[in-house]
Design a protein that fits this description.
seven-stranded mixed β-sheet, 119 residues, globular, mainly beta, four-stranded antiparallel β-sheet
């Protein structure tokens, strides 16, 4: 079992930066893929990006490419989502999730952290 806890959300202005953290406990992340998702009010949850823990490779949705960066901190069993040039449409609850491997479904989910971007 892996427990995930997100932190770092808040209220920022458009153009600002914000860094979210996803801390894993219970087991060390090894072959896992950790993804970030978000859900805006009245919208379905959407994929933001992922990082493959063992290779460090990343992938992003088009709308955040070049603005968001996902990285990992092996020592702290943590995944970071650095967001810059934030837009009002980035407002959402952000969730991190983990899959046992890249070919498996995300089965571990955090509780989410709110990001609000004002104009």
């Amino acid at each position: 079992q892996v427990q995930l806890v997100e932190s770092g959300g808040g209220l920022v202005q458009a153009g600002d930066s914000l860094r979210l953290s996803c801390t894993a406990s219970g087991r060390a992340l090894t072959t896992h893929t950790v993804g970030w998702f978000r859900q805006a009010p009245g919208e379905e949850r959407e994929f933001v990006g992922y990082i493959r823990w063992n290779t460090g490779s990343t992938y992003y949705r088009t709308s955040v490419k070049g603005r968001f960066t996902i990285s990992r901190d092996n020592a702290r069993n943590m995944v970071l989502l650095q967001m810059s040039s934030l837009k009002t449409e980035d407002t959402a609850v952000y969730y991190c999730a983990a899959a046992e491997s890249h070919d498996e479904q995300y089965v571990y989910w955090g509780q989410g952290t709110q990001v609000t971007v004002s104009s």
